Amino acid sequence: MHNVTPFELNYLGLDSKEFAKLELLTSEQLIIAWILILIEYFVQFINIPFGIINMKILYCTSLLHRNLKFILITQSGLIIFEALIRLFFVGPIKYFTGDIFWFQTEFRFTTIKFLVQLPIFSRMIFCHLIIIERICATVFIKCYETEKGRIFTASWIFIFLILSVLNFVHNEEDEANDNLSSQNVTLSSAIIAVLLALIGLFEIILIGVIWKYNKNKLNGFSNSSQLSIIGGKPVVVINVHRRTSEYKLKKRYQYLENMRSALQLAPTILAYFVAGVSTAFSQTFYSIIFEADDFTCEIISQLNNVFIAFINFLIIFTTIFFHKILRKNFFKIFNQIFCCAPKIKISQEKSTINKITPTLAQQQTEKYFAILKGTWD
């Protein structure tokens, strides 16, 4: 059995009792645990390059409002940060100490413990933040496109950090008062997780309502006006007699972009909802089901880690895949990275040659028959 050092006990939260439990596990159980761990780390490894590509595409695009763009970039950055923690922080500790069920929240150094919990807490917040931003874009459509949004961005960052600190302090007090390990949860935490999952279901419906509202506004705007070119510039003519300013075009464009953003973000909101359901299930399991053995509890925890890694991948992927222009930019960068562009050019050249060759053959055949005809005549 592993001898726990003072550093491991005071800073990593390792306990000799945990190693005693590991000694009771069979080889088959250890193999199952390691397979789940390796699957999670494989997905986390994929999340890093995809997250970087995602951030590059979002940073370079001008199709999204700055508020939404900054939220999505921060979201991808936190997912990358969590993947780095799991791969280069949690993984080596599990391997070198032998405690394969060690989790980053067991760390006893307060500052680092807060930082490693930040990506976990962000999954509870960013879904609501995206919905709030889209509501603002819909309600304040007259001025939202022209506003820089610095107040909105500064406000949500400040509120997010305050809520993160309060959540961290609350969890620390629960562990101290109830003498819980960081892998266990209280009944109140489980209830909060269930409520957040229900709110996530409501937000899925709400993003559909936002899309429908902007669609109706766009259709109504199109029915009451028509686009014309007057003086070499595109303007909107209402009732074919009254000319409006170019502001109307911006408003019409904003309705269209709000529809596109709603369609783009709907799968991402759904992924957040599934993550909330997974968290609610695992926390309810720990809070209510007491008769499960240690191995079952740890496997449920590791399955949740695997599931969350897949959810993070889906969040990164769906953010850009369901936007037509961003998806096109993604495949362009993907082709550049994996050197697909030269192959495409070569294939195009071959197809061009194949198209030209029959034409030359036809010309030679016609000349040949012309010569034959001349000899017979």
TrEMBL record:
<feature type="transmembrane region" description="Helical">
    <location>
        <begin position="302"/>
        <end position="322"/>
    </location>
</feature>
<dbReference type="Pfam" id="PF03125">
    <property type="entry name" value="Sre"/>
</dbReference>
<keyword id="KW-0812">Transmembrane</keyword>
<comment type="similarity">
    <text>Belongs to the nematode receptor-like protein sre family.</text>
</comment>
<keyword id="KW-1133">Transmembrane helix</keyword>
<feature type="transmembrane region" description="Helical">
    <location>
        <begin position="70"/>
        <end position="89"/>
    </location>
</feature>
<feature type="transmembrane region" description="Helical">
    <location>
        <begin position="31"/>
        <end position="50"/>
    </location>
</feature>
<dbReference type="GO" id="GO:0007606">
    <property type="term" value="P:sensory perception of chemical stimulus"/>
</dbReference>
<keyword id="KW-0472">Membrane</keyword>
<feature type="transmembrane region" description="Helical">
    <location>
        <begin position="190"/>
        <end position="211"/>
    </location>
</feature>
<dbReference type="InterPro" id="IPR004151">
    <property type="entry name" value="7TM_GPCR_serpentine_rcpt_Sre"/>
</dbReference>
<dbReference type="GO" id="GO:0016020">
    <property type="term" value="C:membrane"/>
</dbReference>
<feature type="transmembrane region" description="Helical">
    <location>
        <begin position="269"/>
        <end position="290"/>
    </location>
</feature>
<protein>
    <submittedName>
        <fullName>Uncharacterized protein</fullName>
    </submittedName>
</protein>
<feature type="transmembrane region" description="Helical">
    <location>
        <begin position="109"/>
        <end position="131"/>
    </location>
</feature>
<feature type="transmembrane region" description="Helical">
    <location>
        <begin position="151"/>
        <end position="170"/>
    </location>
</feature>
